[in-house]
Fold this protein.
Amino acid sequence: MKSPTLCIDLGSSGTKIYQIGAGVVLSEPSVIAISELGRRKIKAIGIEAKKLIGRTVDGTVVSAPVFESQIEDELCATLMLENFLNKVTLKKLGRRPSVLFAVPCGADNASIKKFEKVLNECDIYNIHFVESPILTVLGSGIPLSDSNPCFVIDIGGGTTKIAAVSLGGIISGISVNIGGKSLDKMLIEYIEEQFDLKIGMLTAEKLKIQVGSLLERDNTTTIINGRDIASGKPRAVSVSSADIYPPIKSFFDKIFELAGMVMAKLPAEISADVRRGGVCFAGGMANFVGLDEYFRYSMGIRANVCEDPALATSIGGGIVAGNDKLLSRLRINRK
Ligand SMILES: Nc1ncnc2c1ncn2[C@@H]1O[C@H](COP(=O)(O)OP(=O)(O)OP(=O)(O)O)[C@@H](O)[C@H]1O
Ligand SMILES: [Mg+2]
């Protein structure tokens, strides 16, 4: 099989494409807007399509075709990926590049088949599937060897991947359907309860990114707009980090509890290595202010976060794609 020239990380929130020799060439929201009738007519894609979420325009369907890291809408996923690939690569690489494709840990054959179908529709037949946690660690710049394992927590938009990995592969790992979008939903409910204000998903995400913090003393403030529950009229309120601390704390406590469960099952030597080396955090949610401090306080272990944690998996994919020996060790062998 040909060595891959591209790595694709088709995330629930964002698609990232890494091209060998060029680095990350695309990072866009995994969103597409198509016409309701002629389903193949694309109205907007990526960042422009995301702006349309919750703002229904007549005759337009806005789709986030990857849900909880799985393909939920095959047609939209195909149109979206085809469009992204055309944007960045096919012209330069020829029509049929070989691809390394990142899948969540423990992905079953049925979900891999769905990814394969979408890739085939995009004219890609040369595909190496690799479980994402090891890519995430390598892309975070953490040196790995068979005797030097690493514990990684990748909190994405739709899922959280928690795993202990070494160069030999995944020692123990889980993927759970909790991610940034779950926190956005929790914030919508919380704002409704506390402020009698109904807000949309985009506002909730903006609120989370602008003032969300795991430092209890943090008091950054922002203004959010929504619909007053009682009167139905538009209303704006000022919300601070402290105001939304309870749902944020409960979200991360749940993730840390799951991480604790994975850690508890590790062999003693590996457990000791994890305690010494700390935990590697990745995924867009690892950008959270105060994450390292709160993790150390809760778990007594150091947290390491690389510079752009949402890109770590695709960068790691690039590293593995350029190393035939490592790739043949890590690629999922399918019957
Ligand atoms: N600065 C930030 N602070 C807090 N959250 C952020 C920040 N930047 C991005 N996020 C959140 O990170 C999530 C997206 O992360 P990421 O791109 O790693 O997800 P994904 O790879 O598309 O999803 P998944 O791996 O779950 O399929 C979104 O929920 C987004 O709101
Ligand atoms: Mg991801």
Remarks:
- The first strand starts at residue 6 and ends at 10.
- The chain has two domains: 6-134+313-330, 143-305.
